[in-house]
Every structure is written in structure tokens, then in C-alpha cells.
Amino acid sequence: MAGIALIDYGAGNLQSVLNALKAAGASDIAVTADPVEILAGKRIVLPGVGAFAHCMGALSAIPGMIDALNEAVIGKTRPFLGICVGMQLMGNEGREHGTTPGLGCITGHVAAMAPTTEIKVPHMGWNDVTPTRDHPVIVPGEAYFLHSYAFEGADSLAATDHGGPRVAAIGRDNMLGVQFHPEKSQAYGIATLQRFLKWRP
């Protein structure tokens, strides 16, 4: 049984996330697209970059992957971390180039952020992470963001500000998602991953 199942579905910044997990102290990591290994993982990490529909399509295209995720995360309550679009996929749907159903782990949807004279889209660069409720993994700090779409819905754990409050982290029970990139967030990101590795939900 692998310590961490890092899901490889062709839509994540895998090498950087792998390196960051190793820097955080993880040693037993399976980079995998095999649902059997997902089920065997003690912890599951779902990265993601790009468009919601593309990522969800790539994930769904792997036979047995969605069922394995549901069984591991919902059935077996394994600690789960979604990163960037991986976090967004936790919601009910993404509203990008039409509407695409998500994993439905957390109630909410993902919608475009509108640029204004005061803010640019994508939201790119360093910004504060401000917890909205207590969670052992999410603490105040500054992290690196890169996204044009934002989660709107329930179970927010932290916010950032970009033309108003934006969801920076979501979670409930054994599920956690971060909109920022821990693998690009230097000391804060590595410390976040360290707390995830120690988390006992």
C-alpha cells in the first residue's frame, strides 16, 4: 500500500507536486493512473492545471478512476488533497465553455472571474491566505495563485482577496482542496503539505 497516491491523468503539474511532496517529507509516493493503486493509497493527491472540462474529461476517461476515487475518499475516508483545478473538480460543476459536472464532493460550482479596471484575470502571483474557520492544515500565510475561475459554494476554509474575497481553500471531513499551488508557494507551500501528511481527519 503506497503512502500517497498522486493521480496522473495528464492534467497536472506532476513533477513539481512530486518534488514538493518529497520536500515535505513524503517518501512512499505512487504516481499513478491505476484505480487499484488509488484504492491502495493511504492518502490521495489530485493536482490539476488548465480548463475544468478538460481535466474532468481526462479523469473520467480512465476506466474505473471515478469509482476508485469515490470508494477511496468517500467510502474508505482516506485523506484527500485537491490542488488548483484538482480542488475545483471537487465541486458539483464547472461553468467554463458550458457546464461540466464535477466530482460533487463539496457543494458548489466554479465560475469565471470577471476582469475590472482594478484587477486582472487570471489571478496570478502571491496573495494572502486567510482562514475563515479552523482547520489543522490551513493556516494564515502567503501563497502562489494562478487561476481564471473561482470556486463558489459551501465548506470554505480560507479566502484570498482579488477584487473581493475569493475561496482559497475548501474542505470537510477527510477532504481538502486548495486553490493555490503549494508546489510554487515555497516555505508556506511545503509547510502546508507537511501538515497534510500529518493530518488525521
List keywords for this structure.
201 residues, alpha/beta, nine-stranded mixed beta sheet, 6 helices
* Biggest pleated sheet: 9 strands, mixed
What is the overall silhouette? globular
Mean pLDDT: 94
Q: Write down the secondary-structure element order.
A: EHEHEHHEHEEEEEEEEEH
Number of helices: 6
Strand content: 25-35%
Please estimate the helix content: 25-40%
Instruction: Tally the beta strands.
Output: 13
Over all CA atoms, what is the radius of gyration? 15 Å
* Quaternary class: single chain
* Uncertain stretches: none
Distance between the termini: 19 Å
> Strand order within the widest sheet?
2-1-3-4-13-12-11-8-9
Describe this structure in words.
The strands form two sheets. This protein has a nine-stranded mixed beta sheet with strand order 2-1-3-4-13-12-11-8-9. Strands 6-5-7-10 form a four-stranded mixed beta sheet, covered by helices on one side. The longest helix has 13 residues, at 186-198. It is an alpha/beta fold. The protein has helices spanning 14-23, 35-40, 52-60, 65-75, 85-88, 186-198; strands at residues 4-7, 29-32, 43-46, 80-83, 93-95, 99-101, 108-112, 123-131, 141-147, 149-153, 156-161, 165-172, 175-178. The radius of gyration is 15 Å and the shape is globular. Strand 11 (156-161) and strand 12 (165-172) form a beta hairpin. The model has no long low-confidence stretch (mean pLDDT 94).
Short description:
With 201 residues, the chain is α/β, with parallel strands linked by helices. It has six helices and 13 strands.
Write the layout of secondary structure elements.
Elements: E1 4-7, H1 14-23, E2 29-32, H2 35-40, E3 43-46, H3 52-60, H4 65-75, E4 80-83, H5 85-88, E5 93-95, E6 99-101, E7 108-112, E8 123-131, E9 141-147, E10 149-153, E11 156-161, E12 165-172, E13 175-178, H6 186-198
Parallel strand pairs: 1-2, 1-3, 3-4, 4-13, 5-7
Antiparallel strand pairs: 5-6, 7-10, 8-9, 8-11, 11-12, 12-13
